[in-house]
Structures are given as C-alpha cells and as structure tokens.
Here is the input.
Amino acid sequence: MKKKKKQQPLKKWAGRLHLWLGLSSGIVVFIVAITGCIFAFQDEIQDFTRDWRKFPAQEQNFVAPSLLLGKVDSILPNSTASFVTYNGKERPAHVYTFMDETPYYIYFNSYSGELLNVQNLNEDFFIIIENLHMYLLLPEAIGKQIVGISTIIFVIMLVTGIILWWPKKKKQLATNLKVRWKARWRRVNYDLHRTAGIYCALIALLLAITGLGIAYEWMHASFYTVGNLGQNYPEDHKVPTLTEVPKVVSPIAFDRAFYTTVEKLPQSGMYFVLDQGAEKPILTGAYPKALTFDHQSNFYFHPKTGQLLASHLYAEKSPGLQFQEMNYGLHTGQYFGIFGKIVAFLASLFVASLPVSGFMIWWGKRNKKRNSPKKASSL
Here is the structure.
C-alpha cells in the first residue's frame, strides 16, 4: 500500500506538468518537428529537383579556389567571399558570400569554373525551412531562445509522459504498447498519443538534446566534457600563431592550401578552404563523404606563403571533439546514412503528432466535464 501511495502523487504531479507544459509549448514543438521532417531529406529532394547539383566525375584537378572567388566578385561586386567548398567529384563547388547583408551560395562546375547557379539563401525553400526550424523565422536572438526553451520543456514532457505511461503492473505493459483501433476515436487518439510517445521517446530525446547542442553553446560544450569524461585536451584548441602577418591573404597561398589538403587526403569526398583574414592561418577541412559533416580533418596554412603550419586529423581528435563534430549528423540522422534519415523523419513525424493528439485529449476531457453533471471518468 505504501508503494501505491508514493506512485499516485508522482503521477498526479507528472500529469499536471505534462498538461500545462504541453499547452504552453505545443505549437512550437509542432512547428520544429514538422520542419524537421521536411528537412530530413533535403539533399535527396534537391538532387531530384535541381539537375545542376550533379554531373559526371572527371579525371582532372578541381579548379583553383582563388579563381572561383574572382568569379564571385564579378557576379556580385563588393560582396565578401572567403569560404569555398568542394562537394565531391560529382557535385559543384560553391562559394559562401554576403552582399548587402544578404547571404548567397554561388555554385560552379568544380572542373571548369562554369557558373551553375546563384542561390539567394533568404529565398531558398530549404533554408527558410531550416530557419523556421531553428528560429521560427524570428530574429535569431529571440527565435533561438523560444525554440530552445520549448525544446527543454519537451524533454521534461518526455520524462513526465513516461511516468504517466508506466504501468502499475507488468501484465499491463503489453496493453500500454498497443492501439485499440476498434475503439471510439477518442480512445484511439489517446492510445496513439501514448504509444507514439513511448516508441519514439529515445530517438526524440536524442533529437532534442542534439538540437540544444546546436542552439546553445553551453550544451555544445557539455558534449566535449561528457565525451572526454571531464578531461581537457589542449591539442584540440591549439591554433598555430603567425610570426609574420601579411597585409592580405595571398591567392597563391589560398590555392596552395587547398591543393595540399587534397594531396594529403585524396580519397575525401568533400573539402573546404576558409580565408580567416591575414592575421590568422588559412583553415582547410576534409570529410570522407560528400554532404556529410562528420569525421572532419583540418589543416592550417600560412596566409602569405601557403606553407603547412599544423594538421589536426580526425583520428587525432579527442572523443569529446569528435562527439561535438558529429552533433549535426546525429540531429539530422545523416550520421547513419539513409537509414538514419528515415528514423529521424519518422521520429519527427511522431513528435509532431504528439501536441495535436495531446490537445485533442485535453479538449475532449474539458468539454466532457462541461457537458456532464457528473465527474468525467478518466480514459
């Protein structure tokens, strides 16, 4: 009997928390989850709808990044371009740039330098979906907090939902995992809410925590701490200093940095080269697969000569840093390939259904109490 008394107050308070937190954050959780569904297969959808995104691989070197930067300057005069990405042997290179505070991706054939597409990121469908997912299309400082706080609330709701779902007796476990499809629609909706929440709970928790890692620096830093079991690795944060600081970054050095990276890791599927300004080394990176942002290796080069100053291969990085860098892949599911994307899509779809079915449960009970002189019995 004592055990029963301890469980009932816990479920009572869990139910109250679950209800009011759900009502306060449901709309945001729905928007974030449904946009996550759409974004999960954005690469595959873009490949199907935008034919310029793929072309036959060729047995020749990629065009020099300085040439692409020069072309961007002629396409968008006075823009600020310093970041070039080569998306694999069968995909175009693109330059990230700003003009009048508007961000652009400028796509080129990575072998010939031919212009393929000028993409205004403020008008691109999938970038809009991504911004809606992260900031609700609000100013970043405001939208990030609303989404972040709603995500934290959602994590609490997952915990309280499990407490409410947890059966009193083991023999009820199988029953709680089923949907009574032949019952009345309110019962079906209630069962769907419970079972969807339980079946996707662990994946939803992973998506929520990795999402918080993108939104908040303190959560991102915690991945490093947890991955390294509290130990710090100074090599992870070491950036070479320059003994001679040039006035500008040399185009020759910029190209040499890129081609040296390709020479060091020729089997990589994607590369980038970043001009960080003359006072800092040129930073390059290589990834094993195109459009997959994990297992990153980095190199640092002198901005005047292009001399290799330091390297930080993926295998040399600490587990905590590796964990940080795989965060995006875990959040989108791409870390586990197409299977991971399918799981992320389905989990996001289930999560999107929870605020809807939860609201219907609350609204049904509310109307039932209004219309009945007697206390409505629980489902």
User: Anything to note?
Assistant: The first helix runs from residue 2 to 40. Residues 158 and 201 are 7 Å apart (CA to CA).
